[in-house]
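Changelog-linked ticket: adenosine-5'-diphosphate example.
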Amino acid sequence: MRQSSLVVVANRLPLDDSAAPDGACEWRRSPGGLASALHAILEQTPATWVGWNGGIDSAPVLPDIGSLRIRPVGLSEEELRGYYEGFANSTLWPLYHDAVEQPVFDRRWWETYRDVNRRFAEAAAEVAEPGAAIWIQDYHLQLVPQLLRELRPDVLIGFFLHVPFPPPELFMQLPRRVELLRGMLGADLVGFQRPQAAHNVAQLATKLLGAQSTDDQINLDGRVVRTGAFPVSIDVSEMQALAARPDIVEHAEQLRTDLGRPRRVLLSVDRLDYTKGIEHRLTAYSELLRDGRVKVHDTVMVQVAVPSRERVDSYRVLRDRIEGEVGRINGEYGRVGEAAIHYLNQPFDRADLAALYLTADVMVVTPLRDGMNLVAKEYVAARAAGTGSLVLSEFAGAAAEFEDAFLVNPHDVDGLKATLLDALDADPADLRRRMRAMRDHLTRYDILAWARAYLTALDHSGRLAAGLRK
Ligand code: ADP
Ligand code: F6P
């Protein structure tokens, strides 16, 4: 296989499951922040993407997508269970999200996680040209930086964590904490969403590895590992262009009609994940209906909850609970032809998402913990008219950038109810001021600004960032 000067390593490939009849492959905008973010950058930058194709026991040779080469890594059924569903999504994911769900420590998963990380590292080493930069993404591949350093001491190694990095007292619960920390610190630059994460890692490196650490530099084994916060963003111009398209504006109008032309529409768009606070939100909304503070013919709520990690027990159980609760709320408060909550458990394409954002008077983004939350940024990008309210959890990374949102603690159901009412009843002039401030920030810090900041920090020469689309 040909080698590249930039190699991205991520658990998932951004490819459509089914190649077109002519053999061509489309970008698959799989739900999830990572694919959304990297899609915007790699569309036009010569690079190779190493990742799992989403299938089991198959690693077909996949065609390039434009200038992007694809190097698939296959997973067996056992690997999928131990590495992806097990260690990544039943141990690390809940632990890194404040243990809002109990992390599972199953010793059998560790070896599989380590072996699969090694396979990703070997694949990346094979496709990297001498002196290349290799950019590893997220908690699935936390051992890859150190493994790669052993295989290819000539390359520049970057690691970016899209999810939160937990406080030391939580990380200390991990049975393989030393290996995981060392693995990540094999990189030259470790990037996080928030400065607090770099602070947590510095404390742990001192405590567990005896390293000399500050919040932006860790001296380990005679090497310097740089750390820092690089808040990820979205392709603002793509979302703006979609939201301005006449057919999408018309679609948004039609959606409002289909919803019964209520005075106000609330919208939530999440992967169906226990970190997203969907149940807390449903409780708050149902109490507002019960208390008569919100009336069904006047206000409707749309909850998009795209299926996610459906073979993991906790996700299956959550789906049943949410669907039971939506059924209860609609049964109790809906009327014939007037649902209290419109629940959609399906993926949507970007155009349909843009139409939904245009329809929403109040966007409700209330995760219990979230690395960033790109849905909040997509909503702001879509609202060129300056109308609309964003209700945003204090525990989403995006809250640090959107101080003008209606910020809320989603664990406090009374506070959540009060904030929803504030957002529903806000003065339009106040909303315009808030939206303008958020949009000003977002247009300055879009996805290219993120990639440029990270890649420039990784390689001071500016060589990597120079390849990005203008
Ligand atoms: P996470 O990475 O935890 O899923 P984010 O909010 O950062 O959370 O990213 C979610 C991404 O997935 C966004 O780009 C959003 O547009 C996309 N997405 C969410 N719901 C859907 C859906 N039903 N269909 C398609 N894409 C979705
Ligand atoms: O943004 C966090 C993240 O885990 C990404 O790494 C991932 O692409 C996304 O959520 C969706 O999850 P999954 O790849 O498990 O479907």
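Closing comment: Example verified and attached. The pocket of 6-O-phosphono-beta-D-fructofuranose (ligand 2) is lined by residues 12, 32-35, 138, 162-163, 308-309 (CB under 6 Å). The two ends are 29 Å apart (CA to CA).
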